[in-house]
Amino acid sequence: MDPLSALSIAAAVVQFIDFGIKVVSKGNQIYRSGDGSLDENRDLEIVTNDLLVLQTKLDQTSQRTDQDERPTEGEVILRRLSTAANELAKNLLTRLNMVKAQGRFRRWKSFRQAIKSVSSQKEINSLARRLSLMKEELQMQILVTLKDKMDMLATYQSYKLDLLDQSAKNLLKALQESQTGASFDAVTQGQTPAPISKSKFEDGGPKDNPALIPKIISGFPSPPKGAHQLHSHLKRNLYEFDDDEAERAVLRSLSFPAMDSRHEAVAEAHSRTFSWISNIQRGHDQPWDPYGPWLERGSSIYWLNGKAASGKSTLMKYLISNGDVSRNLEVWAGRRQLICANFFFWSTGTSMQKSQAGLLRSLLFQTLERIRESNKFKPDDLFQRVLPDMWERLIRIDENAVEVSKAKGRPVGKPFSRLRDSWYAWTLSELRRVFLRLMQETSEKFKFCLFVDGLDEFDGDHAEIVTLFKHMASFPHMKLCLSSRPLLIFEQEFDAFPKLRLQDLTRNDIKIYAHDKLSAHGRIIQLSRRDPLFLEQLVIEILDMSAGVFLWVTLAVKSLLKGLSNLDSIPDLQKRLRELPPELDDLYSLMLRSIQPKFYVEQASRLFQIVYQAQSPISALTLSWADDLDEQLALKAPIGPVNAEERESRVDAMSMRLKSRCAGLLELRSISRRSDVEKHADLECNVQYLHLTVKEFLEKAEVWSTLLDSTKSTNFDANLCLLRSDLISLKSADRGWDEVQWTIIDSAMYHASMAENSTGEAQTTLLNELDRVCHSLVEFDPKSNRYERKIHWSAAMHTIQQPCHNCPESFLAFAVSKGLVLYAKTKLSNRAGEVSQQMVRPLLVYAIGCVPIYEKRKMASVNLSMLAMLLRGGLDPNESFQGSTPWRRTLSHILSILNVDETIQALSLEQSWLDACRLLLMHGADPHAYAKTVLKNSDGDSLTQPSKLSVLEIVEMAFSHLPHHLVDEVKTLLSQKRGSASSLKRDRFCYKRKYDSDSIRHHDQHKRTKITTDASYLPGRLQTGTLE
Fold first, then answer.
1. How far is 298 from 162, CA to CA, in rounded Å?
2. Which of 37, 59, 152, 743 has its CA 20 to 30 A from that of 235?
């Protein structure tokens, strides 16, 4: 035997002997121990069990904290470490139990377990070392968290004493003057606290005499809610907090795209018209109230009303910019600062341009911006007092930026500049509270006059908007000038206020306009030489036919000017005028019939359909893409801006096309697009109806049917055309990731869904291209954070400071949430259950309302077709994930719709949600499930502890407004399911998800890719084959 072999055999013998000694030794320890375990393992088991008990207590404490206030960053880290340590400890205990000797035959089992112990010792030691490291990290984090808590507690107590000491004299002075002090809370609630006597302060301030503190604390302004908020308010004094930048961030949150576009789109008043407005007087036969005296001395509301197209919006625009009106209002304001703001409701505009939320955001933006500019009158802390919650959030953002910058050793910079426009998800209740606070805080230094046009174009309950305006007018330092058509609700509610009817007062304005426009044409001079009275007679005839409708006058004058250019004679012009129908609808019909040649009619129909199906005013460039006959244009277009030459060429061509094809019923209007609160703007040409009455005319069944017949023999689909144009718009938009991009994406998904309905086909190719483009945009956006890029581009919809944990994790999930049934069906290919189990959240969750916070206003209905398709595909409504199920999420969303805003009551809860409950119950939803709810007051504060509501209670409460037989059907089905559920066990496998909301980051890619091969199923970062 060679020496090397001999050495190898000897080493093996020595190793075997060493192993045998360890086995005998450990077997003897196990046999003699009381519980069948080794001494070192028993100690390790005791320590591990103690750690598990500590972790359980920590979880209980965290749950109690979460009910009171938002957890801090340290608490979140501590909770994650605790969870990880818990899993590690459980694994270690499992390994230790495996090497115990239990039961009878202890000698043989001791020997066998000794072998296991020796072979497993390396793994046990590894787990123990990892647990030890985790323990050290937990201890360090607990110490840091305790330090922060102690700092906050000390700061809070110091704040109480300092604040009392600094303000005691001011409080005493106010109490002496009024004899009835009022705390901040009492003032806001309309209550008056008991007076405090002067004797309480005679012995010195609170610091000198601590016994005074309990006596006066109840009458003193309370600090912000929660120690965290107070701690943040005081920490800002330790470094420079940029109030100016914070105020700009507040204004950016209130602004929204096209906020001023309707005001700008309204035609300017013709020279010398409306000059009578400040001088009108009321007579016995004149049913109007003087406007000038109301401006100078009046209060409350002045109502301008008039028939459709009588010039109300033009008059409102004139009043806003008129110098005489401003001077009259300055008289009313006296020594206080005058603040004017305006809003123009627009029924054909965006959702914000016709909603109460848009009204309040616009008014708050304008008033706060102008208060900011009036340095002489602006209180230093007005923004903090009017928007305490947002100000607190800005302070936290600033603090986080300072801490991160210090840790990385770089300058702080301007953290608020990273906030996008409309970065804050305002709710209607918040906006109302902020507006109320603003009125309360500004009553001594400011007076407000608001001009609001088009109340009849408000997209909601008109009674609701009337109530809001009446409440605003109740403040003595505010007045409102309102305009609308004379709808019955407005006549009833505004009859007691000063008012005028516009068509009664514009006769002279019409005469001036018609005379000036016609006399400017050179041929009029020639005709007047033949008949000096011709022009005056023509104007009188226009005046009599118009019935006070300014738009009719405009169209009649255009027709006459065209006749003059065609060298019409005086009889020809008279005949042209007399052949015009006196009613606008008849005039519009005549204009449509005049479109020549006939093939222009089909092209006009395409344009009318595209503009009608657009969700908001469409630009000339976007319309040119939608009307382009090249169906591959959207796929071929590169990502990047459109060059100026092509843009100009397309806009010019569209302008000529509208004039030649649409008979003037659609027209281009240039508006400025506000890019930020510094008022930088660029011009954009939008396509608009000539007037709202044109849209109302086209929507008539017989008119719209005629337009559709013109394209019936073609494959034209307006929504498909708009989807293509949205895709090109997204590709050519400015690089970035803000509300502009999200508006385009929302529009594209909406038109994709509508195109599915109208064509019966999934738009897979276009939607896949949309997904690719969005991935590209978010990757190159400097404002998007790593969290957004890691999950999916839809996560970037939310503020960079508050990543959206509720966002879809893949484009498939996003499409499900948007109701793209055919696209989802195509992608799933009869594997819905299989694909859903590979996702972080079940697909069913996205079908029933797992939407980002900013989209909760869109939760009023549920897509039943999508829900039915997924349920038929085998998805389980009882699948457990994140402590809930899709079925329980449905119940919770029903409750959240009722509570998301006080304006969204049960009447807004559509029948589709009741039908969704029926569908889910029919497919096995647990009839014994429940959802938690909390009663809240008007400020959003919880009044009760969370209570559980059963399915039956939720159905009865949420759908009481629906027909009783529909609700009874669901209740009967629920009763049947409850009976069967109590006697039968569910035989379906229930897949349980064992990860929390952060597991998106750590989800195992291997498990996903074993089954899923289509990249559209996967989160954004996983699609690229990397995982951080």
1. 45
2. 59
Give pLDDT tens digits for 98-142: 655 544 444 444 545 554 555 556 666 666 676 677 666 666 667
**953: closest CA among 965, 938, 939, 967?**
967
Do the Cβ atoms of 615 and 347 come closer than 8 Å?
no
- Per-residue pLDDT of 685-732, as tens digits, reads 889 999 999 999 999 999 999 999 999 999 999 999 999 999 999 999
Q: How many CA atoms lie within 13 A of 525 on its CB side?
A: 3
State the residue for tokens 């129908």.
581
Distance CA 72, CA 235 (A): 15
Number of CB atoms found within 10 A of residue 762's CB: 20
Give the integer Cα–Cα distance in Å for 314 and 344. 11
Residue with tokens 């000797």: 101
Q: Are β-strands 499-501 and 618-619 bridged in parallel, bridged antiparallel, or unpaired?
A: unpaired
How many other β-carbons are positioned within 10 Å of the β-carbon of residue 935? 11
- Parallel, antiparallel, or unpaired: how do β-strands 666-674 and 618-619 relate? unpaired
Q: Do 989 and 800 form a contact (C-beta atoms < 8 A)?
A: no
DSSP letters along 252-314, please?
HHH--TTTTHHHHHSPPPPTT-STTTTT---BTTB----HHHHHHH--EEEEEE-STTSSHHH
Q: How many residues does the chain have?
A: 1028
**Cα 550 from chain centre:** 39
Q: What is the C-alpha to C-alpha distance for residues 559 and 587, in angstroms, rounded to an integer?
A: 11
Q: What is the DSSP letter of 950?
A: E
Q: 209 Cβ partners below 8 Å, 6+ apart?
A: 203
Tell me the residue type at 884: S
Element (H or E) spanning 153, and its range? helix 106-178
CA dist., res. 279 & res. 324, Å (int): 10
CA dihedral (739, 740, 745, 751) positive or negative: positive
Task: Report the range of poorest mean pLDDT among 15-19, 539-543, 972-976.
Answer: 15-19
Amino acid, res. 458: F
**Angle of CA points 62, 64, 69, to nearest 5°:** 85
Name the residue with tokens 């009839």: 927
- Candidates 110, 93, 106; CA nearest to 47 is 93
Are residues 622 and 725 in contact, defined by beta-carbon separation less than 8 angstroms? yes
Q: 3-class SS at 11?
A: helix
Judge if the upstream peptide bond of residue 3 is cis by omega within 30 degrees of 0.
no
Per DSSP, 908 falls in state G
Q: Are 708 and 605 in contact (CB under 8 A)?
A: yes
Q: How far apart are alpha carbons 453 and 446 in whole angstroms?
A: 23
List residues bridging with 949 in a β-sheet: 931
